[in-house]
Amino acid sequence: MDKKSISVGKVGEIFAASYLQSLGHTILFQNYRKKVGEIDIISFWNDSLFCSEVKTWKEGIGFYPQECLHATKRARMRKVYLHLLLEFPAFCHLTPIFNLIHITEKKEVRFYSSIF
After folding, report:
1. What is the tens place of the pLDDT at every residue in 40-67?
2. Backbone angles phi, psi at 93, to 5 degrees
3. What distance in Å separates the CA atoms of residue 32 and residue 22, rounded to the nearest whole number?
4. Neighbouring residues of 42: CB distance < 8 A, sequence distance ≥ 6
5. 16 neighbors 112 (Cβ within 8 angstroms)
6. What are the tens digits of pLDDT across the range 10-47?
7. What is the dihedral of CA 86, 89, 94, 99, to 10 degrees?
8. Closest listed residue to residue 51, CA positions, set 83, 10, 7, 11
9. Beta carbons of 80 and 40 less than 8 angstroms apart
């Protein structure tokens, strides 16, 4: 990954976090990493833990939300979530919700909640 794509991804994550906060979410973790994978943003709202993958994507090249979260990525996110519960057992009673946040090249936020 080159320096430009890293900075574009980071900018997208900042937009995504701001968007979630505007909805009333409390951001708990950004880039929560374990050996099995990563969850870009973990937020809390309404007795639920929102585990969000953030994609900053140009619309001209086609964007298909389901393709971003293929079976391998979904499995990794679930494994990371299980590690989170082991690390923070107090979260066990919260409902997990897995999401995709698409940041367009125009800095618009498209939120796909409960995508899997």
Report:
1. 999 999 999 999 999 887 766 666 766 7
2. -80, -10
3. 21
4. 27, 28, 29, 30, 32, 49, 50, 51, 52, 84
5. no
6. 889 999 999 999 999 999 999 999 999 999 999 999 99
7. -30
8. 83
9. no
33-69 burial: b if 16+ Cβ within 10 Å, else e: ebeebebbbbbbeeeebbbbbbbbbeeeeeeebeebb
The chain-wide mean pLDDT, for the chain, equals 89
Domains present along the chain, CATH in parentheses: 3-112 (3.40.1350.10)
Instruction: Give the separation between CA 108 and CA 114, rounded to whole angstroms.
Output: 19
Q: With beta carbons less than 8 A apart as the criterion, state whether 77 and 51 touch.
A: yes
- The pTM of this model reads 0.88
